[in-house]
Structure formats: structure tokens, C-alpha cells
Amino acid sequence: MRRLVVVSNRVADPSRGEASGGLAVCILDALRRRGGMWFGWNGEIVADDAEIVPACVKHDNCTLMTMPLTERDYREYYLGFSNEVLWPVHHYRLDLAHFTLEAAEGYRRVNARFAEKLSPIVNRNDLIWVHDYHLIPLGAGLRARGVGNEIGFFFHIPFPPPEVLSATPEHEWLMSSLLEYDLVGFQTMSDQANFCRFVCDFMGGEMTGPDTLCVAGKCLRASVFPVGIDVESFVATAQSAEADERVQRTRRQAEPGLSVIGVDRLDYSKGLPEKFRAFRRLLEMCPDKCKPASLIQIASPTRDDLQAYIDIRHELEALSGAINGQFGDFDWTPVRYIHRAVERDTLAALYRASRVGLVTPLRDGMNLVAKEYVAAQDDADPGVLILSRFAGAADDLQEALIVNPYDIDEVAHAMRRAIEMTREERIERHQALMGRVRQHSACNWMRSFLRALSSCREQLVDNVGERSVRRRDTERRRGSLLPGTQARQISSESSSLEKNLAASRRA
After folding, report:
1. So what's the pLDDT on residue 26?
2. CA atoms of 376 and 388, how far apart (whole Å)
3. Residue at 272 is within a domain
4. N or C, which end of the chain has less CB nearby within 10 Å?
5. What SS3 state is found at 75?
6. Is 155 a domain residue?
7. How far apart are CA 195 and CA 97, in angstroms?
């Protein structure tokens, strides 16, 4: 089996308990099975004049190679361009994007450094898998340093429509950088369609197959790979003796005895203020019937240095206080708002103890909390998942109650329906959801992407050859081949594509 090199902004520390969801859990679960190297930032920030030297640590079947960022890198590359430009744009929030030339330069500089440090340690037969928006130009940086390996890229976040992306400074350079990958993966068909439409409409590209693009003498595949969780591990955690004891204790101590749970990072894309307002609307709609319900919202801190995140934290604190002040009683706190990270085993028990899982982001690449909530449920008496139609998971988890998170009344009615739903309907919905969660597990996601990456060059060569034949046959059917220069141009173009791919394959 070929060695796998995973590259991401952050490298998780396997010796620590990882938080629920996200890139870290998926990659660690997969690398433990396959083995390989994980390369990226270790989370440390050093002085601007410090020497940047990668450190190598062996852990189980993985080699972790990490390095710090300087203070300037963190400010420009991470906070600046990655999270004040790319993150809001890819979540359709141009109003929150803040672009500076310094941030763009920092983004280029750190990606170039990643490429410089990584390229000498890549083996000829390695498969390279780059993750997420922080490292879009890394593939181009590796190619410039002579790395001819298959390189794949995966977007964990949404990919916006061309009309949104084109408003981003530097978007031409970013999109050109993506053409250096052999395979670009997306969470949903909508994300894939947005990318293909940009390449075709704005870059003069052509779709030569269902997931194959050719542009500017280069061909690549753009495919959909829905990310998942380690299902059996999470089920075991949720059904452990410790979790069962916590579930029973939670249900005994809970003021209402019926909980609606939300677990999100504290981010404006998660729709947290809208969620609080929908719960308040539920209490207004049926004050007597819904008093036995409370909302438990865990919002783990993230990017506390950015003003947009400071603002949303203050808004949630004010909303939770206002709702509790208006509706609370001596024996009932309607909203329990927790602003800290919670361990994965604790979350599994809380999911299992909650009648309703409320996952209502305004825009999300996938959202693994939705899948974890389903996996944690008791098959004989499951809870109900309420899911935003703008989460990537909604493409898969259709038996959830799908809602528009912007429509406060619709979300409130969905909560009421979930609370009143019969056990028979809950079981039927849960069985269908659990089947899809198992089908698109983290392991299957990893395997399908790597299988596609390993074979994409052969498929691209075949596709280019078929494209040349189809072109000639089309001209013959029209009655004659294109004359002179134009015919030679087409032949030369097809030959160039075939040679480039073949050379790439040999490398």
C-alpha cells in the first residue's frame, strides 16, 4: 500500500482527547488504519525572527511532522486571509470579508514555506492529500519544486457560486492554483457544480466527463466525497457503561426531563442566534406544553481574536439571559448555554439523553454533529434530528426534519413536532438515518477519495483520448474535417494534453 502524506493547517495531537467532529477525528481514525505522515502547523506561535524547523514525532502508525507559525504568519495567513477572507466568502458572507494586501502576502508566504519544507521528504510513490481552504496553493507550490506525485485536495467547507467567489480579490490566482491538483473533492454535488461552473464560465474550461475538467492544457477530476464519522467507535462510546450512567444521571437531574441539544463551534456560520430565537418562539407558541423542554447549547470557543466572533459571543450571552429572564422559573432554566469545549465521551452521552438534536447552521460544508447525534441514539427509543437544509449533511440525512434556519417559525414548529413525535415514527426515521451514516463513514470517505486519487491519472488519460476521438468523429459527421490551421490546433491540443498526463503519470 502506497504511503499517504496528509497535509492540513493543523495537526492534531493524538495523545489528547479530541473534540467532536471536524477534520482531526476523521484523519486520525483513517491514518491509524493505513499509516503515513501528517504534516502541518502544531498550533504554536513563535517570534517573527525565530527559525522555523519542522519537528518529527512517531505515534502509533503515524509520523507527525509539524512546525510553528510566527506571530506575523498567524496574524496574516491564519486570522487575516484564511479566516477574514476565505472563510466568510465560502460561507456566502461577503459582508464579513476583510481583505488586505498584507494578509494575501502572508497566505502566499506560509503556503510557500509548507511546500519548501515538505517537498524534500516526499517519496516518489507517495499519495499526497491536502486539506481545506488554508492550503489551496500548496499543490502549485509542490509542483514548482518538482513534485510529480498524485496530489489531491479536499474542501471541507462549502464552495460558493461563481458570482460570490468572483468578488474575492486573488480569486483568479486561487482558482489557477487548484488546477495543479489531480483531484479536487467536495462535500456535496452543489459545491462541485459551483466549482465546475466557475472553471467553465470564467476560465474557458470544458467538462469532458461527469467529473472531468480540461482547461489551459490541464485536466483534473472534481468529485463528491461526503465526509463521515467513525461510526462504530462513536456508537461504542455512546453505549458504554460510563455513558449509560451519565445518561441516567442527566435525565434524573434535568429540570425539564426533555432536552433539545445543540453542539457547535462559536461561529457566525452556525446560526446560533437564530437557534436561540427559534427556541424562544417555541416557548411563546405553547408556553404550558413546552415548559418541560430546555435547550442545551454547547458553543466551543474559536478564533476569539476576531471581532465577528467577539460580537456573536456577546449576542448569545444577551439572548440566553433574556430568554431565561422572560420564561425561567424557580425549577426551570429554559436555556443552558455552555461556552467551552466538551469531551467527546460526554457529548455522546448528552446526545443520547436528548430528545431533539438541533443542527441549524446557516451554511456548512457537512456538519458531523448531525451524524454523531444519529449514531448516539438508542435504537429502541431514539431522538429526532432537526437539520438545516444548508448543511451538507442534509443531502444525505433526508429523514431528519429539514428546516430553513432563517425561518424562525419553521424551526420552532419543527421542534414542537419533534417533541410530540410518536416512538414508531422516531424509530422509522432513525433506522433510515443510521443506514446512511454507516454508508458514508470516515473510513469509507477516506477509501473512496484515495481510490479516486490513485486511479485518476489513468482515467484522465483515457478521457483525453476519448475526447480526441469524439472530436474527430463529430467533424467527420459534419462532412469534412476542419481545414488547415484549426484542425492542426485541435490535434496539437489533444496531443499536448495526452503527453502532459502521460509524463505526469511516469513521474
Report:
1. 64
2. 19
3. yes
4. N
5. helix
6. yes
7. 20
pLDDT at 28: 73
Grid cell digits, residue 14: 493524538
218-224 and 62-70 as β-strands: parallel, antiparallel, unpaired?
A: unpaired
Distance CA 490, CA 487 (A): 5
Residue 401 DSSP class: E
CA–CA distance, 138 with 439 (Å, rounded to integer): 31
Query: What pLDDT does residue 477 have?
Result: 43
Q: What is the mean pLDDT of each run of 10 residues along the chain (507 residues)?
A: 90 63 62 83 93 88 92 96 96 95 97 97 94 97 97 97 93 96 97 97 94 93 94 88 77 66 94 96 80 87 85 94 91 90 88 94 95 95 97 96 98 95 97 95 89 87 56 43 41 47 48
Which among 54, 71, 156, 163 has a CA at the least distance from the CA of 114? 54
CA 212 to CA 209: how far, in whole Å?
A: 5
Domain count, the chain: 2
| Residues 65 and 163 placed together within one structural domain of the fold | yes
Sheet holding 212-215, edge to edge: 55-59, 62-70, 36-46, 4-10, 127-131, 151-154, 183-186, 218-224, 212-215, 206-209
Residues with Cβ within 8 Å of residue 405, at least 6 apart in sequence = 271, 274, 275, 360, 361, 362, 388, 389, 390, 411
Q: Would you say the pTM of this structure is higher than 0.85? A: yes
Q: CB of 375 within 8 A of CB of 392?
A: no
Are residues 180 and 252 part of one domain? Answer: no
Give the catalytic positions in this structure: 156, 364
449 strand-pairing partners: none
Q: Are 246 and 163 found together in one domain? A: no
In sign, the C-alpha dihedral spanning 404, 410, 415, 419 is: negative
Query: How confident is the model at residue 67, as a pLDDT?
Result: 95
Residues of 198-230 as b/e, b for ≥16 C-beta within 10 angstroms? bbeeeeebeebbebbbbbeebbbbbbbbbbbbb
Whole-angstrom distance, CA of residue 197 vs CA of residue 186: 14
Handedness of CA 463, 468, 469, 473 (dihedral sign): positive
CATH of the domain at 432: 3.40.50.2000
Distance CA 345, CA 242 (A): 9
Residues 6 or more apart from 376 whose CB is under 8 A from it?
A: 234, 235, 237, 238, 348, 349, 351, 352
Q: Quick check: 196 and 206 in contact, CB under 8 A? A: no
Q: Could you tell me if residue 453 is inside a domain?
A: no
Please tell me whether residues 38 and 124 are part of one structural domain: yes
Domain span at residue 180 reads: 4-224
Establish if 313 belongs to a structural domain. yes
Same domain, 410 and 428: yes
Judge if 310 and 418 occupy the same domain: yes
For residues 288 and 323, give the distance between their C-alpha atoms in angstroms, rounded to a whole number. 16
Please give the Cα distance from 117 to 68 (Å, whole number): 12
